[in-house]
Every structure is written in structure tokens, then in C-alpha cells.
Design a protein that fits this description.
The protein is mostly helical and 221 residues long. The chain has five helices and six strands; from the N terminus they run H-E-E-E-E-E-E-H-H-H-H. It has two domains: 39 residues, no CATH class; 139 residues, no CATH class. The N and C termini lie far apart (71 Å).
Amino acid sequence: MKKILIYVIILSILCIPVAAFAASGVSQKIGIWVNNKEIKTTAGAEATMINNRVYVPASIFRDAGFSVEYKKSKLTMINKNLLYIRNLDVLNAFHYTFINNFEKIDQEISNILGNLLLEKDVDTTKLSELVKTVDLDSNSFDNANFTPVGDYSSSFDFASASKSFNVYKEAIDLLKKYIESGEKEQLEEFYAKRETALQYYALFTEEFDQVFKRSSLNAIK
């Protein structure tokens, strides 16, 4: 009986370190936080502690707004938030060029119509210069640096901008002809064509606002 008791005590002493090691070796879930937001992980794609180092599968960062690509022994990770911020830069540049100058054209048209109404001399030099500028601006959208957002793909180029301006150019030609000839029909055609151009422009600005809004929301996700 005494031998049995001693054997049990010795066995218990030997088992204690093993149990303690097993307890300390139990892996605990490692939480991953990016920009104060916890990233949820799935089985088989969790952070792992090995030799006091934390190893994290790159794919986890997709849920943090990163694009992750492994190709030809090269791992590329890009923060999509930065891409959408770049969208805002591209959109602001297009606003500064095309939109601002298009509205300057419309303002100059109003000035010319006012002079015609008051039977003053009309100078279309400034209008012609603005038309040349906007002709270039209407195709200046930098879609090479545009990140697809919503229904707008990487080939998106604001074709509605060019369409609205091309129709407005036709209206301007009619107005110039009226200034030279004084024929009322040409003035009526000008007004009709201008109205169509402004309708296209309204569709463009609505589209522009949608793209800007979606890019802004994605930039702060």
C-alpha cells in the first residue's frame, strides 16, 4: 500500500509540468485591428504566433480595404482608400478644367445675348477662345488613374461631358450666323440647340456628383 501511494505521488509530480506546458501551449485567438477597426478572420486564415512572432495571412487585409495580389513571387498590397482619394483628385481636376470653363461659356453667351438685346456691338473673340479651351477639356478626364466605383468601370470617361459640349458648339455656330445675318430662324435654332446642350450637361453633372459621392464614401470606409 505504501509503495502504491509513493508511486501515485511521483506520477502526480511528473504530470504537473506536462499539464502546465499544455495549458501554456493552448493557442489563443489573436485579434487584428486596422485603423481602430477589428478585422474578422475565418478558420484557416488566422494570425498565428510562432517563436514570439505574429504571422498574418495577407488575404486577411482584403477585409480592411486592401487589394491583395500575389504574382510571380511578388506580393502587392494597396490600400483602396488611397485609390478612391486619388479618384477625388482626378474629379477635382476635371471640375476645375471642364466644368468651370463650360460655365464660363454659358455666361459669355448670356453676355452676348444681352448685348444683342440692347443693340450693342458684339465681340465673340472671348467666346471663341473659351470654345477652344473647353474642346480640349471635355476629353481631359484622367481615366488612367480612375479606380472603378459602383457602376463606373475603369474605361469610364464622362462621355456625357463631350456630348453636351459638342451640342453646345453647334448652338454657338448658329448664334454666330445669326449675329452676321440677323435671320430670326437661326436665333430660334440656337435657343433650341442650347437647351438640348444644357439638358445633356445637367445629366453629366448628375453623373459627376454620383461618382464623386461614391468615391468619397469609399475613401472613408
